[in-house]
């Protein structure tokens, strides 16, 4: 396993969990105990939410049949590695306000925050997560029976980290934490400076 501390350095004092979290692709097939798995969703539950609408929804695949259903809409390049993860999760959100029926303009923002909480709790529990955007959204909505007023944003593989040698050669080279841009490239005072 790569030494994350040697590859990532924070410019300011932050909790080490933010630096330790990255997105490996090599998973063991070790099952995740229910109390550990559901603690991730407990963390997501406490994410901030506009008007407390909590629009996020997580659809879990753990059985062979459910995982096969998920693999039917995930891009082949991701199936190569994610099929080994013991849990696949579709991250979706309700796009309207359940009380008024009007558009919830922050559904994706709030759901992304909930996913972030989930990812950090997974890291804290010794699990790895890898979110994927490479999947067919229309096929996913149909296969998961999501109503029209829901959007599916990502598919997340969750499990315990495996050896990079278990991956195909072209993925072994990428199996390391990535660095991040310096904050000066994305934080602007007063107004945007492109």
Describe this structure in words.
The protein has 194 residues and is of the alpha+beta class. Helix content is 33%, strand content 15%. It contains 8 helices and 4 strands, in the order αααβααβαβαβα. The protein has a 4-stranded antiparallel sheet with strand order 1-2-4-3, with helices on both faces. The radius of gyration is 18 Å and the shape is globular. The model has no long low-confidence stretch (mean pLDDT 96).
| Percent of residues in helices | 25-40%
Poorly predicted residue ranges: none
Overall pLDDT:
96
Radius of gyration: 18 Å
Sheet with the most strands: spatial strand order:
1-2-4-3
What string gives the helices and strands in order? HHHEHHEHEHEH
Beta fraction of the residues?
A: 5-15%
Shape: globular
Structural class: alpha+beta
Distance between the termini: 37 Å
Short description:
With 194 residues, the protein is of the alpha+beta class.
Defining key terms:
194 residues; 4 strands; 33% helix; 8 helices; single chain; alpha+beta
SSE layout:
Layout: H1 4-7, H2 17-20, H3 34-45, E1 56-61, H4 64-71, H5 76-82, E2 87-94, H6 107-124, E3 128-132, H7 137-143, E4 150-159, H8 169-172
Antiparallel strand pairs: 1-2, 2-4, 3-4
Helix pairs in contact: 3-6
């Amino acid at each position: 396993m790569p030494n994350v501390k040697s590859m990532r350095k924070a410019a300011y004092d932050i909790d080490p969990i933010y630096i330790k979290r990255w997105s490996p692709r090599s998973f063991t097939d070790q099952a995740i105990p229910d109390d550990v798995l559901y603690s991730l969703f407990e963390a997501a539950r406490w994410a901030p939410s506009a008007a407390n609408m909590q629009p996020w929804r997580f659809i879990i695949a753990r059985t062979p049949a459910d995982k096969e259903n998920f693999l039917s809409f995930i891009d082949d390049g991701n199936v190569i590695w994610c099929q080994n993860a013991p849990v696949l999760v579709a991250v979706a959100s309700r796009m309207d306000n359940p009380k008024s029926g009007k558009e919830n303009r922050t559904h994706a923002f709030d759901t992304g925050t909930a996913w972030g909480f989930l990812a950090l709790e997974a890291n804290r529990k010794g699990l790895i997560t890898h979110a994927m955007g490479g999947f067919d959204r229309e096929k996913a909505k149909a296969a998961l029976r999501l109503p029209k007023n829901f959007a599916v944003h990502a598919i997340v593989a969750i499990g315990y980290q495996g050896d990079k040698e278990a991956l195909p050669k072209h993925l072994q080279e990428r199996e390391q934490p990535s660095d991040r841009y310096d904050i000066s490239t994305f934080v602007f005072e007063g107004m945007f400076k492109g």
